[in-house]
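Support reply, case 0932

Customer input (verbatim):
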Amino acid sequence: MKKWVLVAAACVVVGAFLGSRVMAVEDVSSEEVPEAKVVAVREHCDTIKDELRALQRSDSKARVYLGRYYETIIGKFITPLNVRLVENGLSSTSFINNQNDFNKTRTNFVIDYIEYQKGLEELVAMDCKVEPKKFYEKIVNVRARRAVVAEDVVRFRKLAERHVGLVEELEAKL
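Our regenerated output:
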């Protein structure tokens, strides 16, 4: 039980970290990109690309870290507990539903992260000095994809918290 709480706490901390770095985004078309943004992108292109590469490395490490924790939670805590509950004839509908939600969120996280990563790679490969408007539009798109990944992390945290609550309820009944 203590290990589970530590793992859940780690997910909350990493989720807060990843979620806090997401910026608010809005859809922008080429016509709506202010000239000041175009000039700024063109003038600071190298710095922007360096920051994007740093973000790419950081997010990649966070994804690996989170992926391992999610696999640990599902493989060492949620699934074994559900199996034991079924073997002992205890009602575990809530636990099974939580496990299914966790698996769906994990699948979504993988898909959403791959889409975000592809967009970020395309962004880093673009020449922001030649096409600053398209570069800015792509930044907005990549931010939106990153926000989706952050929402997945928040869902994981809520599911982990729900599982802890279910375990505590079960513990109180036993």
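We compared this against your earlier run and they match. Two observations from our side: The chain has one domain: 2-173. The chain has a mean pLDDT of 84. Please reopen the case if you see a mismatch on your end.
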